[in-house]
C-alpha cells in the first residue's frame, strides 16, 4: 500500500500543470478577488463581514470538488484506456488498493491547498483563522472523502477517459451550484439550500466551522456515509479493462 501511494504521489507531481492548478488556483483566485476594493468592504448582506471573509469556505468547497471530480476520474479512466490497469491485473494487487492510493494522494493535495488558502487569506487580507479548527478538519476530511468517492464511482463506471471527464464535469457543476460557489447559498431556493447541506463537499459544514460553531454532526455523518457507500460501489464495480 505504501508503494502504491508513493508511486501515485510521484505521478501527481509529474503532472505539473494540473497538479499546480489544483493546489494553487484557490489561493490565486482569493488574491484576485481581494484585489477588488468593494469585496474588501464590510457589507450588511454578509452579516457585516467582507465578501472575501465569507467566500473562503466556497474556495475550500471548490478545491475538494475539483480534485475529487476533475482529477481522480480522469486519471483512473486514463489508466484503463492506456492499458495500465490491464497490466496491473496480472499482479496480486486488489483494485481497492489502487483506488485507496488515489484517495490518499489527492486528499493530501486538497489539504495542502486548503492550508495554503488559509495562510494567504490570513497573511494578505487579515481574514480570521477558522473559529473551529477541529470542525473544519472533520468537514474537509469527510467532505473530501465523499467527493472523491463519487469521483471513484465515475472512474469505475466510465467506458473511457473522455466519458469520465464529461460525467465528472456534470457532477462537478451541480456540486458547485449547491455548494454556493456560483451563487451565495442564501440566494438559492430553500429546498436547494436544504439539499446542499447534506451533499459533499459540505459547504455549510465548512462555513460553520470557519465562521463560528462546530458543524452539525448530522451533516458530517451523512457525508461519511456517502463516502463509505461510494467507495464500496467503486471497489465492487471497478474494471481493469
TrEMBL record:
The chain crosses the membrane at residues 20-39, 59-79, 99-127, 133-157, 164-183, 220-238. InterPro entries: ABC-2_transporter (IPR052902), ABC2_TM (IPR013525), ABC2_TM_bact-type (IPR047817), ABC_2_transport (IPR000412). The keyword Cell membrane applies. It is a multi-pass membrane protein. GO terms for cellular component: ATP-binding cassette (ABC) transporter complex. GO terms for biological process: response to antibiotic. Residues 17-241 form the ABC transmembrane type-2 domain. The keyword Cytoplasm does not apply. Keywords: Antibiotic resistance, Cell membrane, Membrane, Transmembrane, Transmembrane helix, Transport. It is found in: Cell membrane; Membrane. GO terms for molecular function: ABC-type transporter activity. Coiled coil: none annotated. Belongs to the ABC-2 integral membrane protein family. PANTHER family: DOXORUBICIN RESISTANCE ABC TRANSPORTER PERMEASE PROTEIN DRRC-RELATED, TRANSPORT PERMEASE PROTEIN. This is Transport permease protein. The lineage of its organism: Bacteria, Bacillati, Actinomycetota, Actinomycetes, Pseudonocardiales.
Amino acid at each position: 500500500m505504501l508503494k502504491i501511494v508513493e508511486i501515485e504521489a510521484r505521478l501527481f507531481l509529474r503532472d505539473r500543470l494540473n497538479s499546480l492548478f489544483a493546489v494553487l488556483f484557490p489561493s490565486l483566485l482569493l488574491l484576485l478577488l481581494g484585489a477588488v476594493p468593494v469585496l474588501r468592504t464590510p457589507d450588511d448582506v454578509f452579516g457585516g463581514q467582507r465578501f472575501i471573509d465569507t467566500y473562503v469556505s466556497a474556495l475550500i468547497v471548490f478545491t475538494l470538488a475539483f480534485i475529487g471530480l476533475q482529477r481522480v476520474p480522469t486519471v483512473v479512466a486514463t489508466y484503463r484506456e492506456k492499458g495500465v490497469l490491464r497490466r496491473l491485473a496480472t499482479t496480486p494487487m486488489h483494485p481497492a488498493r489502487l483506488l485507496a492510493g488515489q484517495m490518499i494522494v489527492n486528499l493530501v493535495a486538497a489539504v495542502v491547498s486548503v492550508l495554503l488558502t488559509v495562510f494567504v487569506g490570513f497573511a494578505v487580507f487579515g481574514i480570521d483563522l477558522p473559529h473551529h479548527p477541529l470542525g473544519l478538519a472533520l468537514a474537509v476530511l469527510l467532505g473530501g472523502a465523499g467527493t472523491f468517492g463519487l469521483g471513484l464511482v465515475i472512474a469505475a463506471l466510465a467506458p473511457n477517459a473522455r466519458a469520465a471527464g464529461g460525467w465528472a464535469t456534470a457532477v462537478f457543476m451541480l456540486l458547485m451550484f449547491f455548494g454556493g460557489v456560483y451563487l451565495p447559498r442564501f440566494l438559492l431556493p430553500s429546498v436547494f439550500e436544504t439539499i446542499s447541506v447534506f451533499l459533499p463537499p459540505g459547504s455549510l459544514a465548512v462555513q460553520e466551522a470557519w465562521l463560528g460553531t462546530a458543524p452539525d454532526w448530522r451533516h458530517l455523518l451523512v457525508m461519511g456515509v456517502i463516502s463509505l457507500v461510494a467507495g464500496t460501489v467503486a471497489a465492487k464495480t471497478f474494471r481493469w479493462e
